[in-house]
Design brief:
15 helices; 15% strand; 8 strands; globular; alpha/beta; 327 residues
Length: 327
């Protein structure tokens, strides 16, 4: 477990929002980007580990989460906004480049930072969410609805207020347990006529990788911030379809490592496993390594912290001897 006293906290101005960051260590900059529904704390195991190995580790609360500003309109969560936040973060620290590590939606943002601004990324490690090129022929929400129906979490999260109202039937700790402890491999799809949060189970016993105290950290932050900011990421999905046309056909050429557990959501059922081992992923990200961890579920940096920390360090250390340039 990390020593919380060694982690410092501040809020900085970036891309016209105030962003809360947790940081530790000195050396080359490493950004750790969390996903849904998390905060900087999801990297508690990696922060101290990487700092002790000579890195300046910065884990922000992403836009809409925790102690970072949470714009109300979904259009403020476009890929351009999210990438802009990170470019501003690098500028704040006077760094031309950083190592970027992202999990879940944080991985999606990391992929797009590498797509839009490869000059700012030394190397990339993405967890649980591979890179898919946005199709110019079919809108994203339409494809989710066609494939899974209205019970799909992405579809249920679209309507402003719907998920917030359904989540409110439970206390915040229970909501955290329902999402963070989900250990099935099928996709997040509720039966017809049921809200997803009602369909998700609340485990009676916690797995060994997380404590009640850890879950309470998340619950308290979401009680302060609410869920709208986090849900706005999904409500902005159509903007990817609208905005990414200029990057159609462009590869991500930065050195990249992708890590996923073989028990992750959709690994077998949706063909994610075949995709990440196949040629299409490699053609989009030619400088790619893929690591599949046996028995790993979705929140893999918390579930298998030592393995994931080692995989991150072993990759970024290959590129750490080269000089980092100040802006």
């Amino acid at each position: 477990m990390m020593n919380m006293s060694e982690v410092s906290h501040q809020r900085i101005k970036t891309n016209d929002i105030w962003m809360h960051i947790a940081e530790q260590g000195t050396g080359p900059l490493v950004l750790l980007l969390h996903g849904f529904p998390e905060i900087w704390y999801s990297w508690r195991h990696q922060i101290g580990y990487l700092a002790k190995h000579g890195y300046h580790v910065v884990a922000p609360d992403m836009r809409g989460y925790g102690d970072t500003d949470s714009p109300l309109t979904p259009s403020s969560y476009s890929p351009l906004h999210l990438v802009g936040d990170l470019v501003g973060l690098l500028d704040h620290f006077g760094q031309q480049q950083a190592f970027v590590v992202g999990h879940d939606y944080g991985a999606i943002v990391a992929w797009h930072l590498s797509l839009f601004r490869p000059d700012r990324v030394k190397a990339l490690v993405a967890l649980s969410a591979p890179y898919f090129e946005t199709s110019s022929s079919i809108r994203s929400i339409e494809s989710f609805r066609q494939g899974f129906g209205d019970g799909c979490y992405v579809c249920q999260f679209q309507e402003p207020g719907r998920a917030e109202r359904s989540f409110a039937r439970y206390d915040y700790l229970t909501v955290m347990k329902k999402f963070l402890l989900y250990n099935k491999t099928d996709y997040l799809v509720a039966p017809p006529g049921m809200e997803l949060i009602d369909y998700l189970e609340t485990p009676a016993v916690l797995p060994p990788w997380i404590t009640e105290e850890d879950l309470q950290v998340y619950a308290e932050k979401f009680e302060e911030s609410g869920f709208t900011g986090a849900l706005n990421y999904f409500r902005a999905i159509e903007l990817y379809w609208e905005l990414l046309g200029p990057w159609q056909g462009k590869r991500i050429d930065v050195p990249a490592k992708f890590i996923i557990g073989d028990k992750d959501i959709g690994f077998d059922a949706l063909g994610t496993g075949e995709y990440v081992k196949g040629d299409v992923f490699k053609s989009l990200v030619p400088n790619l390594e893929v690591v599949i961890l046996d028995g790993g579920h979705h929140f893999i940096q918390q579930e298998k912290p030592q393995e994931v920390s080692h995989e991150i360090l072993s990759f970024i250390s290959k590129f750490s001897t080269e000089k980092f340039h100040l802006v």
